[in-house]
Automatic annotation (TrEMBL):
Residues 46-75 are annotated as: Disordered. It comes from Methylobacterium pseudosasicola. Residues 296-741 form the TonB-dependent receptor-like beta-barrel domain. The lineage of its organism: Bacteria, Pseudomonadati, Pseudomonadota, Alphaproteobacteria, Hyphomicrobiales. NCBIfam families: TonB-siderophor. This is Iron complex outermembrane recepter protein. It comes from the Bacteria. Keywords: Cell outer membrane, Ion transport, Iron, Iron transport, Membrane, Receptor, Signal, TonB box, Transmembrane, Transmembrane beta strand, Transport.
Length: 772
């Protein structure tokens, strides 16, 4: 990495200041630190030179704003002013690229650019460097080495299935919200869910625990916040060709840089094409992605970034669930192969088109006041057709015949998200404040044309025969949904000596109108909730930062009870305490946290009225998380994570379920990743990496009648910079990644005796890239 101009300026500054005595003591040390550690987005503006002063009179200095003025007395008593050094530019933000695996600033945890160590809640940042090292092909892949997160629930990246602190869901039923550039992604009622390919992302952040105080309705387990790649100040161009097992073929490009000489206009353009089969017969993933961005920076205080996104998954198909008999436990009829496809090749399909357009605007009026506005329009169009095994079949089957059903869905969703923020940085006496006021709005309209379930001929997993005729399930009444959500919030981050206290509150209003078009009938669900968070961090000079916080969340529950009254939102509360450690001068970050989450108003079966539910349930999740990230030298990166989870059903109308664990949630997760770059010698340019992921046992069904056993998986990677061997090949790089290196066959999760998922087998990805 070439030195920053400020770094080159440091020796000259010391030579200039040494005669005056200003290079001694604290002031000189602070100046040296500024000069030597200046980020690349700062610039030095030295004023015209003057003659060096003479004599031995004492020196004094003063500071005003970002200008440092140095005054020096001449020997004759006259006073001169040394040239002012102006250091201008923006600070590190939560959208900036992270040059290593260790991030220092987050925007997800507070919606302001805040050091990770001062956020009173667990936040993990997965930078682009890690995404590339591990060749992540989905957001779920990118968070595999993150504590509190279980993303290896099922095969396929068409829909994300991620659990955070025990809360989440599978595919279309996933409840953990995903945020892109500060705004929530749009989701329909069935299969219309936005999925963002990590090829267009700069970083992925995981905020664990309740986040409603900032983002409105949300699962109590947390959320995933993604940041798009932004225009760059320096020219950047890269192309990559990728192949691998399962007939993988990929091509990608990433272009960026200034448009005008003054740098006021800059651009970024990402593109990707992917075709790959998944491990089950007849299943595949196809994707085309294009993400343009244009930035306008008329001055240092005003930034406008236009963001576009188009993703087409034109011809996809993914394998469904399988029964426990023949996968987890023996079946006299034999074992179900990992590549067995339980659907119908001529019927099953999943197609999705999604596009978005919006902007991020920021203007700072002065050292105190700043305003921001984010706006995005999104559209999703999906087609789902699927044949699946009847998962409610009883446990203990001994036949190779599997009963099946078919369903289909067509959905179109349009959504608008808007966020307005006012930020004030000021002080009241000795207390510093970062006050944030925000108003958020999200509106969406969804048209759903879907079917119920229809019978399909059974299939023999030992000798499958496909293509037998069956009737297409008839459509159920078509529905139209209008959903409006408004949130008004305030947050104050207060600093007094070594204390940082964060207090926030938010009021949300949610209105959902569902119209059944054939009956011209509309039902309305009107919810509102107040949520909050209070937390404190104490910063020791050593880099140690113990913290504690209390936060609440809410999540609307769709539907009505037997009386016809709409369900109330679920409410959750969390207590969290931990310690963060980021030693000064070292590229490392360590965090330990303990949490206890309770969620009330959970819907359970109505024992008095079959097929209805009542909100008498309560669940609890508590655990311990550990995360360590470090770049120990210019050669070695380490990432380690551990999770212990104790999930329990506290109340349920079915007393037999009280005290049971959540389904599909491992009791422990352990991971370790290491990447070593050879610094010189004949192996210069070579990087070797390896990882281990240990997944603990999980409950296979709500009654905990069986368990999914633990599994240990190994990953590996090798990367070589060809320019290190031959300068004529500068910019060329080859890499090979392997996930589940030893191709272990294992069950990733189950949700019922008839609903289990094999984990992904060995995946090999080989890439050739060129950057210039």
């Amino acid at each position: 990495m070439s030195p920053h101009p400020l770094q080159a300026l440091a020796p000259a500054m010391f030579d200039r200041l040494r005669p005056s005595g200003l290079s001694k003591g604290t002031s000189g040390a602070v100046l040296a630190l500024i000069l030597c550690l200046a980020p690349a987005h700062l610039r030095a503006e030295p004023q015209p030179p003057i003659d060096a002063p003479s004599g031995d009179a004492p020196a004094r200095h003063s500071a005003a704003g970002n200008q440092v003025a140095r005054e020096r007395s001449r020997g004759d008593g006259a006073e001169i002013v040394l040239p002012a050094l102006t250091v201008s530019g923006r600070g590190i933000t939560g959208t900036d690229p992270v040059p290593s695996i260790v991030a220092r600033v987050t925007a997800a945890g507070t919606k302001t650019d805040t050091p990770l160590i001062t956020v009173p809640q667990a936040v993990s940042v997965i930078p682009r460097v890690q995404i590339d090292q591990q060749a992540a092909r989905s957001v779920g892949d990118s968070v595999r080495y993150t504590p509190g997160v279980f993303a290896d629930t099922r095969v396929g990246g068409v829909l994300e299935s991620v659990f955070l602190r025990g809360f989440g869901g599978f595919a279309a039923g996933a409840t953990n919200p995903q945020i892109l550039d500060g705004l929530p992604l749009v989701k329909g009622g069935n299969w219309a869910a936005q999925v963002i390919d990590p090829a267009v992302l700069e970083r992925v952040e995981v905020l664990r625990g309740p986040a409603s105080v900032l983002y409105g309705q949300a699962s109590p387990g947390g959320l995933i916040a993604m940041v798009s790649k932004r225009p760059t100040e320096q020219p950047f161009r890269a192309v990559t060709l990728t192949t691998g097992n399962r007939n993988r073929a990929e091509a990608a490009f990433d272009l960026g840089g200034p448009i005008t000489e003054d740098g006021r206009w800059a651009y970024r353009l990402n593109g990707l094409g992917r075709w790959v089969d998944t491990q089950a017969d007849f299943s595949r993933e196809q994707r085309l992605v294009l993400a343009p961005a244009l930035a306008w920076r008329p001055d240092e205080d005003t930034h406008l970034t236009l963001l576009g996104f188009y993703q087409n998954d034109p011809d996809n198909n993914f394998s469904g669930w399988l029964p426990a008999e023949g996968t987890l436990v023996p079946n006299p009829a034999g074992r179900i192969r990992r590549r067995f496809f339980p659907g119908e090749p001529g019927f099953d399909a999943y197609d999705r088109q999604q596009y978005m357009a919006g902007y991020a605007f920021e203007h700072r009026f002065d050292a105190t006041w700043a305003v921001r506005q984010n706006l995005r329009y999104a559209h999703i169009d999906t087609r789902f057709e699927g044949v699946a095994i009847n998962y409610f079949a009883p446990f203990g089957a001994t036949s190779s015949l599997l009963e099946r059903s078919a369903s289909w869905s067509r959905e179109a969703v349009d959504g608008v998200s808007l966020e307005n923020q006012v930020q004030a940085d000021f002080a009241t006496g000795p207390i510093g404040h970062t006050l944030l006021l925000g108003l958020g709005y999200q509106g969406s309209r969804a048209d759903v044309n879907a079917s119920g379930f229809g019978p399909v001929p059974a299939i023999d997993f030992a000798a499958p025969v496909y293509g037998r005729p069956f009737a297409r399930p008839p459509a159920v009444p078509r529905t139209h949904q209008d959903w409006s959500r408004v949130g008004l919030y305030a947050q104050d981050q207060m600093r007094l000596d070594n204390w940082v206290v964060t207090i926030g509150g938010r009021q949300d209003w949610s209105l959902l109108d569902t119209t059944t078009r054939s009956a011209a009938r509309t039902s309305t669900q009107d919810d509102q909730a107040f949520t909050g968070r209070v937390g404190a961090v104490y910063l020791f000079d050593s880099g140690l930062a113990p913290y504690a916080s209390y936060a609440t969340s809410f999540e609307p529950t769709l539907g009505t009870g037997f009386s016809g009254a709409p369900f109330k939102p679920t409410h959750a509360r969390q207590t969290e305490a931990g310690v963060k450690y980021q030693p000064p001068g070292l590229e490392s970050f360590v965090a330990v946290s303990a949490f206890d989450i309770t969620q009330d108003n959970v819907a359970t079966a109505d024992s008095a009225h079959p097929f209805y539910s009542v909100q008498t349930g309560a669940v609890r999740s508590r655990g311990i998380e550990f995360e360590a990230r470090a770049t120990l030298s210019d050669s070695l990166d380490l990432i380690g994570a551990y999770t212990y989870l104790d999930t329990t059903v506290r109340r349920d109308s079915n007393l037999a379920l009280v005290g049971k664990r959540f389904v599909a949630v491992p009791d422990q997760l352990v991971s370790l990743w290491a990447n070593y770059r050879f610094p010189g010698g004949p192996l210069a340019g070579l990087s070797l990496a390896g990882g281990i992921r240990a997944i603990g046992r999980s409950a296979g069904d709500p009654a905990n009648s069986f368990s999914v056993p633990d599994a240990t998986l190994f990953d590996a990677a090798i990367r070589y910079d060809l320019g290190a061997a031959d300068p004529g090949l500068a910019g060329w790089q080859v890499s090979v990644n392997a996930a589940n290196l030893f191709d272990r066959t294992y069950l990733a999760s189950c949700f019922a005796a008839g609903g289990c998922f094999y984990g992904n087998g060995r995946t090999v990805i080989a890439s050739l890239g060129y950057r210039w």
